[in-house]
Amino acid sequence: MAMATAAASASSSLLAPAAATSTAAGSAHNAVLFPSTVPSLRAYPRLLLAFRRPAAAAVADPQGAVLDEEEVVIDQGGRYDDDGDGYGGRGPAFTPPTKPRTGKAALPLKRDRTRSKRFLEIQKLRESKKEYDVPTAVTLMKQMSSAKFVESAEAHFRMNLDPKYNDQQLRATVNLPKGTGQTVKIAVLTQGEKIDEARAAGADIVGGDELIEQIKGGFMEFDKLIASPDMMPKVASLGKILGPRGLMPNPKAGTVSPNITQAIEEFKKGKVEFRVDKTGIVHIPFGKVDFPEEDLIANFMAVVRSVERNKPSGAKGIYWKTAYLCSSMGPSIKLNIKEMLDYGTDSSN
């Protein structure tokens, strides 16, 4: 009995180191193959492939063929791809069905998606890329005027000018023979006997130093400000107030004149100032859409002749680029520039 116990203990003592050794070796082998801390599998696709290749190579498909290492696939996201469909074994991503666009969202032009229904209907009356002659354009403009108020008739010209150069600046006035259709409130800065002359000519507001102080205090209830030359040194202090509003008296605009009576009469009858903006475009109102067509054409051709007559000395090449007519709330109508200039020449003769 003692001998059997000794033999069992001896055998267990002999086997214990081997078992311990095998356990330690297995732990080391597992530690190499399956480390306790594995980095992000998406960040290290090559590391993932290294761990998955032995298992993949040992698995056979239903036909009994063993997978080769070259057949192991990594998808675009860096994941191990079991079935080779490119989605890492998870299948394609779900994309919700999109509803078909209807109404304004289905319009091909993005700018039309913000237009009103009224605008979208009236713009069908004209072809967007067609160039019209002046009488036809005026007729279309009157037809497309459908706002609840009397709209203004506007002309927009893109000129071959760069106003950052002094010799390419365009600023002038034009006397509309049929008037503007608007009531202009005129203020006059003068002194002495000219105060009575201005009131007799129909000026709405007349004053001198006291009017300057009122303007400095925020008084702006006028559309035009006319000044006599002797008042300009005092008017200079109003530059920061009147300049941004386009009301600063200027000889080129006809608002600085020794003949106060004539200046008032011209602006009351329909004198309009225009200038080219920083993009090289001239915007000029030339009446109301309820004018007769003949009156609108007469005003428009007066505008064309004035722009042509005041061509800057620095203008090079083609002076007129594009010309459009429109009402205040209506779509634009493109004009044929050659026919427009010829029409103006014929009418002037």
UniProtKB/TrEMBL annotation:
Entry's Gene Ontology molecular function annotations: rRNA binding; structural constituent of ribosome
Ribosomal protein among keywords: yes
Keywords, sorted A to Z: Ribonucleoprotein, Ribosomal protein, RNA-binding, rRNA-binding
Chain spans, region Disordered: 78-105
CDD domains associated with the record: Ribosomal_L1
Domain of life: Eukaryota
Keyword Membrane: no
GO CC list: large ribosomal subunit
Family: Belongs to the universal ribosomal protein uL1 family.
GO process terms (BP): translation
Name of the protein this chain belongs to: Ribosomal protein
Source organism per UniProt: Eragrostis curvula (weeping love grass)
Cross-referenced InterPro entries: Ribosom_uL1_bac-type (IPR005878), Ribosomal_uL1-like (IPR023674), Ribosomal_uL1/biogenesis (IPR028364), Ribosomal_uL1_3-a/b-sand (IPR016095), Ribosomal_uL1_CS (IPR023673)
Cited Pfam families: Ribosomal_L1
